[in-house]
UniProtKB/TrEMBL annotation:
UniProt record similarity statement: Belongs to the DedA family.
Transmembrane annotation, as ranges: 12-34, 40-59, 71-92, 129-149, 156-178, 190-211
Protein name, per record: DedA family protein
Entry's localization field: Cell membrane
Protein keywords: Cell membrane, Membrane, Transmembrane, Transmembrane helix
PANTHER family for the chain: INNER MEMBRANE PROTEIN DEDA-RELATED, TRANSMEMBRANE PROTEIN
Protein species of origin: Flavisolibacter ginsenosidimutans
Membrane topology type: Multi-pass membrane protein
Cellular component per GO, a single term: plasma membrane
InterPro entries recorded: DedA-like, VTT_dom
Length: 231
């Protein structure tokens, strides 16, 4: 979490990154980023939440960047990219399995990220695929872990679809309609405050769940149960 916030606070780094992606990378690069962040190892560092929110803002300001497509079509295409990214991650996990836990670490592969996603999966079960959509890093590794533990394919697809729809719709349409409201009411653009918005998104979506997962102590077993077991 600290690492993510440090990146966000680096003198407008995130603002410059997402703006560059939107203005120079284009819509297809946006789709690739979403695809990569939701299922490929190399995608865990990408700013998915902030990028989608910013995409919604630019969708309102610069529809030409999206080939003047209706916002509903753009949202559907991004949902498909998110869905396919998870499916690739799930397939990769099914094929590789436990080998990943013994793989040598590198600059783009850290066992701690995989272990964290595994712990999150154990804590929240099937709903992990839905919840992980709103959590940086875990979003990338959760489908891989689901494949490793051989989660039922139909169940995975269901939560993948629901999670992709919820995540993309909330982020993109949030930026789209909030930009219009702020522009009309306060006469400035949200693109000037992407860094602040990114911090807010990270805190709102990540802190409550991570706190429960890592800092809430499990209830100890009753003493009488231990004694009876000993007998």
């Amino acid at each position: 979490m600290t690492h993510l916030l440090d990146i966000v606070l680096l003198d407008g780094f995130l603002n410059n990154l997402v703006t560059w992606i939107m203005l120079h990378g284009g819509f297809f690069f946006l789709l690739f980023v979403v695809f990569a962040e939701t299922g490929l190892f190399i995608g865990f560092f990408l700013p998915g939440d902030s990028l989608l929110f910013t995409a919604g803002i630019y969708l309102k300001m610069r529809p030409d960047l999206f080939y003047n497509l209706h916002y509903s079509i753009v949202v559907v295409l991004i949902i498909i990219a998110s869905f396919l990214g998870n499916m690739v991650g799930y397939w990769f996990g099914r094929k590789t399995g436990p080998v990943l836990f013994h793989r040598k670490e590198s600059w783009y592969f850290k066992k701690k990220h995989l272990a964290r996603a595994h712990d999150f999966y154990e804590q929240y079960g099937k709903g992990t695929i839905f919840l992980a959509k709103f959590l940086p890093i875990i979003r990338t590794f959760a489908p891989i872990v689901a494949g490793i533990v051989e989660m039922n394919r139909a169940t995975f697809i269901f939560y993948n679809i629901v999670g992709s729809i919820a995540w993309v719709t909330l982020m993109v349409l949030g930026g789209y309609f909030l930009e219009a409201w702020v522009k009309e009411r306060f006469h400035f653009s949200l693109t000037e405050y992407i860094d602040v918005i990114a911090i807010g998104i990270i805190l709102i979506t990540t802190l409550p769940i991570l706190y429960k997962l890592f800092f809430t102590k499990k209830k100890a077993a009753p003493a009488n149960d231990n004694n009876s077991a000993a007998k």
